[in-house]
Structures are given as C-alpha cells and as structure tokens.
Amino acid sequence: MVLVEGENGDGVTVEQDDFDVDGGPGPRSAPQQVVSAILGTREGAAEGGYELLSTGVTWTDQAEATALRDALAAHKVENVMLVSAFLAAAALAQSVGSSVGYSRTGLLFLEPDTATMAIVDSADGSISDVRREPLRSGDTAGELAALVTDMQTLPMRPDGLFMVGSGVDITPLKSQLEATTSLPVNAPEEPETALARGAALAAAHAPLFSSSTAALAYAQDPGTGAIDPYEVTPGYHPAFDEAAAGEALAYSAVADDEANAPTAFGNRPDLQTGVFPDAGEGRRGRRPAALVASAVAAIFVIGVVALAVALLMTMRPSVGERPNPGQPVVVPSNQAPPQQSQPAAPPAPSAPPQAPAAPSPAPEAPAPAPAAPAPAAPAAPAA
Q: Where is this region: Disordered (predicted)?
C-alpha cells in the first residue's frame, strides 16, 4: 500500500506499508484486508485534517477482484477504482513518457508467462496496438527483443520503451534489451510499488482510461484486465476460438432483458457484471491507519491518490479546528507592549439638594354680598 501526495497522483510517496493476507475467507482474506486498509487510511487522513481524493486498487486475479468489489459494496465504501495490472502499467507509462517528453511511449508489461506490448499516448493516455504474446521458449530476452523490433516498425513509432513487471524481476531483462534496441529503455525506480502508483494515477485520471477504446477487446482478459475499472457496467468478454479465427474476438456482454441485470460469463458464474447499489453515507468502527509491515506480497496493491497539495496541507486547519471570527488568524511575532492603564477620574460631586418650593397662596375669600336696604317706614297719617 502506498500513500501518494498530489491531487493528480504524481507526487512523492508519503507512506508505504505491506500487510499479510490469507487465501481463504475470513477477516484476514485479501478483500477484507484491503477494505480495512482503505477505511483506516481515510480515517487517518481525516484526523490529520487532510482530504483523500481518490483510491485505486490494482489486481491480478479476476475472482479476487470480484470478491473485493462485493466487499466494497457491502461496507458502502465509495470512490474506489479497481484497475487491472495492465491499465495500471499503462497509466504509469503515460506519466513517465510525459515527464521525459515522449509523444508516445512503448509499454512492455511482463508477467510470468506472458508479455504485453502497447503504445501509450502521452497527451491523453489512449492505448493502441495492443499485442499479447505467451513466453514459452525459455529465451525471454530473445522473445522480448522480437516484440520490441516489431514495435519499431509500427506507423506510430514510440519515442522510448517503458518496462513494468508483475511477479517478474525486470532488472536483468532491461539490461539485455538495452543492448538489442536503439530505443531508450526505462523502468520504475521502485518496481515493488510501481503498479500501486499506476493505480493511483489511473484513479486520478479515470475519464482518460475509461474512454480508451483500443483495449476493449481485452476487457475481461486476465492478462490485460478490464477497461471498466469498476466492472459493474456491461462490457465485453473475449470469445477465443483459436481454430476458427486465430485471435481473440470481443462480443457485447450487455444483458438482453434488463440492462442492469448481472451477467455471468459462460461457465464462470463468479465473474459477473452488474451495477453497484447506491452506497450512501455509512459509518464504520475505527480501523488502524498503519498495518503491520510484512515481507509477504498481497494479491491487491493499493495506490491512494493523495491528500492535497503541500501548500494546502500546511495552510488548511485540521478537521477538529474551527475558525473563530473574533480571534485573529495571524498573530504578529513582535507584539507592542500593553499600554499602562490611566487612573479613573474621581466622580463629580453631586449637586446640593434643592429647597422645597413655597406653597402656593390660598385663594382669597369672596367679598360678602352687600346688605339689602331696610324697607322704608310708611308715612304717618296727617293729623
């Protein structure tokens, strides 16, 4: 398992781990161990305040890849791209070719019993002129030299050669090829994790590799892998009739009655295509971020496309921190000394109490009414 920095999967390796797997079912089986590693890596990244952009898993066994697909769906693990070993090698070839200025890179993918040759376009990652040959003569170097000679006669001649091995030590073969071809021969600096980094690159550039039509005829070929990394949509399966045609043909594996129904391949009911159910939000128990290191190679190798650009990782707060609007983000290194507090001025004396207002004078009594005049006495009669 490798953890790679950079949103395009082309950064430095942040962490690398190996872990044991068991061949049988159980919690230590290869699919369950891979699911635990993915969940643990995601939780560790979240606790550190990083964002895990995508995850790529490369495989060499079709049945194990199907079991991993089912395990990911059961655990509701999203944003995981299953990449065949051949497409992981092609993604790495595109990255190397772009870095050295090749327009086209010749890919030579070696397995214990087969060798696959292809041309990878550095601009868009498209794959063309795919040719797969068995290695039977015992002279592996001679057979590879013949493949490279044929590659040089193609109309779209490559600018250089890139070798990737799966279960094969390519170091001595690289030296022998350099002596027989005029093309520059390149190989990964770390062959053990080369396919993991290729899976990371393919996951980061999923639309480019999913749109390649040149490898459709090899869609379910265990040697070159599936063009659909999820293996959940209808695709193509090689129908090989050596006596009739002499080469592998491809036919549509789309179901007749229901487009989303699982489709079994011949007498291999374990190999199916279908559609993932929507895996919504799910919470898992905590998994360890770092697994026990071991020298035993796992069937699956994970390439995790990393976390974020270095500047973003240094400037972004961790997940547990939240910005405080009332607190400044940047604190100056030389702060001004605090000003001495001035004594408060004494309070002003209170005003003396005002004298009570004089009572208003009582209203004057009304003058008595004048007395009525006495009636006049009657005059006395005359004598």
A: 260-284, 322-383
Contact call for residues 211 and 127 (beta carbons, < 8 A): no
pLDDT digits (tens, 9 = 90+) for 238-248: 333 334 444 44
The average pLDDT across 179-185 equals 92
Structural domains of the chain in order of their starting residue, each with its CATH number: 2-232+276-315 (3.30.420.40)
**Secondary structure element (H or E) that encloses residue 238, with its range:** strand 236-240
Are the CB atoms for 255 and 266 separated by under 8 Å? no
> Average pLDDT of the chain?
66
Between CA 364 and CA 324 the distance in angstroms is: 78
Q: How many residues does the chain have?
A: 383
CB atoms within 10 A of CB 56: 30
> What tokens were used for 81?
């791209």
pLDDT at 9: 66
Question: Residues 6 or more apart from 47 whose CB is under 8 A from it?
Answer: 289, 319, 320
Return all residues near 108 (Cβ < 8 A) that are at least 6 apart.
115, 116, 117, 144, 147, 148, 161, 162, 163, 164
Closest CA to 116 of 103, 126, 106: 106
- How many whole angstroms separate alpha carbon 305 and alpha carbon 91? 13
The CA angle 99-101-103, to the nearest 5 degrees, is: 115
